[in-house]
Amino acid sequence: MATDHVPGGVDRRSLLRSGALLAAGGAAALVPAPLARAGTAGGRTDPAAAGGTGTVTTTYEGRSPYGIDQWASVPFDVPPGVRRITVTSSFDRAAGILDTGIFGPSGFRGWSGSARSEFTLSGADATPGYVPGPIEPGAWAVALGPMVSAAGGMAWTVTVTLHHGDPLPPAPYDLLPTAVPGRGPGWYRGDLHLHSVHSDGGRTVDEIVVAARREGLDFLATSDHNTSSTGVSWRGNVPGDLLVVNAEEVTTRHGHWLAVGLPQGEWVDWHYGPRDGGAFDGHARRVRSLGGLVIAAHPMTPAAGSFWEFGLDRVDALEVWNGPWTLDDAAGIAVWHAMLCLGKRVAAVGNSDAHSPSDAVGRPHNVVYADSLSTPAVLDALRRGRSYAVESSAVTVDLTARGGGAAAGPGQELPLGFFDAVDVTLDVRGAPDTVATLYTEWGIMAATRIDGSGLGRLRWRGWGRASMFARAEVRRPRPASTTLDQLVALTNPIWFSSAQLPPYDVEQRTLFHTERRPDGSWGGMRPLPGAAGAASFAGVQTALAGLADGSVTVLGIAPDNSLWLTDVRGTAVLRPWQRVPGPDGKEAFTVREADVAAFPDGTCQIVVTALDGTTYHQQRRADGGLAGFRPVPGSTGAGRWGATKVAIAALPDGSAQLVGYGTDGAMYHCVRGRDGAWSGWQRVGGAHGAATFSGPALAITGMPDGSSQVLAIGLDGMVHHQLRRPDGSWTGFRQPRGVTTATMAASAIGIAGMPDGSAQIAAVGRDGRIWHGIRRADGSWTPFAQVPGPNGRDPFPAGQVRVTALRDGTAHLSAVSAG
C-alpha cells in the first residue's frame, strides 16, 4: 500500500486531519441540519457490482429555494477500495448559480465555487481547488452553495462517480520558505490578493510568479476562494528571491476576508453570518493564533454577498483599494478615514485581486517596511500599518513627521502634546501630473501639484495630538470608470499619540457659538444643543450665515460626515437640527466640506464637496425648504466640478461667488449669477507672483460695494488675504500681521463682510486658540485679539472656526472644540 508520507516532512493524512478542518469532521458540521436533510432523489448502485476495479455512478436531483444565504449537501458513502471520486453538476442557469465543493470523513477536501461544473480528486492528483490525498472510506458529501434568484427556486443535478482500483502514489509538495535569506530591514513590495486556477483565476501559480517578478514585487500571497489547495500545489516553482505567503479568501455570503499567512493546508470555514454567535471572531482568532493576518476584502463592494457585514473594527486591516480604482474604493477610504478619526487603528492595504491573465498583478500593491523579507516580519509590519499602497512599482512615497526631537513614518507613533508643533514632509517619486494631499483628523491640510517630472514635495506644519494623525494621498485628476480621479498612492497614518493613551473621543467635539456685539464686546461661548434632545452637537466642521431677519443658519458636519442644519437667534435655537439629504433625496449622503451664504431675499445657498470630490449646490428657500443638491458644472460649464474644499459668498446683486481648491490642489473662483447661470471656474493667482495658490483652508465673503474678499491659508501655514474688485480684477494676496510676528500663522479661518465695509476675521492660531481681527474699509488691520471662552475669560481651544455678519453690525462665530 502506498505511503502517505510526503517529502519535506509533510504528512498528508495528518494535514487532512489538522485543526484547520472542521472540528467535528465531515460535512455534518458544514450544513445546518434542516438543509442537510433536504430531499434528494437518485438510485445507489451496489459497489460490489463493479468487481472492485470499475466505477459506480450515482445521480442526485434536488431543488433549492430562493435566496443567496443558504447551503445544502449531497451525502454519499464511500466503501473501501475507492481511489478516486469524480463529481459533475448541472443546474438551471436562468434561476441562479451553484457553488460546489466536497468534504470527507476528515473534513474539507476542496471547493471550486461556481468556477467548475466537474472535479476529481485522488491520492495522486486533484482538480485545482481540491486537495490531493487518500480517499478514506466512510461518509462523504458534496457541498452545495446555491445562489437562487428565481422566486420558484432552482433545480440542480449532482452526479458522483466512485473509481475503484489499486492504490495511487501520493502527490508531494514543497514547504514554502518563510524568509528570503540575506534580506534585512527595508521597504518591500507585495500583493496580498491574487487568484489562480485553484478558484476562479485564469493563471497557474507559475504564471502568477512570472507576473509578480515582472512588476518588481518582493512578496505575494495567493488567496483563492475558500480552498487550501493552492498551498499544497507548490513543487519546485518557488524562486529563491521571492517570498510566497499562503492565504485564503474566505468568501462568506456576508463579506469576503483574507486570511493571510496560513500554514500550508490550513483551511478556514465560510459558512456563517453576523448572527451566528461570533463565528467570524472565532475564525479570526484562530488565524491570528497561527500567525496570520485578517483583512476585510473590498468591504464596500455593493454586490450581493461582498459587502462587509461583520464590523470593520474587528479586522487587522481594510482592503480599501482593490484592483482598478472605482467608486467602491473611494467609499472604502472615506469609511476608513472616519474610523481613524475615531482613534481606531486599523491599517489600510491595496491589492490587485487579479483573476484573469489580463488583470495586472501588483496593480495596486503594498510597500511595507519590514525587519526582514520574511512572512512574520511582513505580516507584523502590515498589521501595524507600516506601509503604503501604490498603483505600480514606479511610485515611491516617503511620509515623515518630526516633532519633539523625534521622527516617525506610516504606522508609527510620534507622541506629542496637544498643541505641540509637528512638521510633516511628503516626498513623491514616479507620479507625474498628479496632486499630493495631506490629511489629518481635520480633513485636508495641504495639497500640491506634481508636474510631469513625477517628483513632488509637500510640507505642512501643524499641531501634534490635536491633529491626531497625518496621512497622505496622491491622485491623478483624470476620470476613471466611476470616479473623477484616480488614486496613485495612499499611506497609512502617522499617529501623534500613544496607542495606550487615546488622543480623545471625537464624539466629544462640540459645536460652540458666540456673538460679537457692535460695541466690540463678546457674548459667552456656549455649546449649541444637539439633535434629538442631545445636550450638544458633536461635530467636526461648521459653517454659518446671517439672515436678514436677524437669525443665523448654522451647518454642522457630524463625526459620520452627515450634514445637519439649524437656525439660531441670539441664544435660542429656532428649530431642531435637520439632516440635509443628498442629491438623490436619501439621507445617507455624506460630505467632506460645506459652506452656506445668506442672501437679502431670505434665501440661502449651500455648497458641499461629497466624499468622492464632487461639488454640489442647492438653494434653501426663505420658508426653510430645500431645493435639493445638484452638481456644480465644471470649468467649461459642462460635466461636474471636483474639489477638495469649497466656500461660497453672497453678493448684494443676488449673485454668488465661490472659491475652492480643485482636484489639482490649486484655488479656483467662479460666479453663479442671479439667474442661476454658472460662469465656469477660473484659476486664482498665487502669492508673490506665483501662478497658483494652494493650501489647507479658504473662505470668501461678499462686500456691500459688490467686491468680495478671499481669506486663505497657504502651504506655508500663513494667512493670506486678497480682494476681488467689482470689475473682476484681483488685488493679489497679502499677509496680515500676526499677533507677535510679521505674519499670522493659522490652521483654520473665517471671514465676514460687515455693513460698514469692514471685514471680521477669525483664525485658529498655532496655539489652538481663536483669534479675531478686523480689516477696516480703508484696508488697514486691527491687531489680532484672543476670543474669550465659555466663562468670558479663558481662551477657547478650537479646531475649526467660521464667522458671519448681521445687518445690525453683530458678528456671529461658530467653532468646533478641539477635544
UniProtKB/TrEMBL annotation:
PLL-like beta propeller domain ranges (all copies): 544-788
Transmembrane segments: none
Higher taxonomy: Bacteria, Bacillati, Actinomycetota, Actinomycetes, Kitasatosporales
Pfam short name (any one): DUF8189
Record organism: Streptomyces antimicrobicus
CDD domains (UniProt xref): PHP_HisPPase (cd07432)
Protein name: CehA/McbA family metallohydrolase
InterPro entries: PHP_domain, PLL-like_beta-prop, Pol/histidinol_Pase-like, TAT_signal
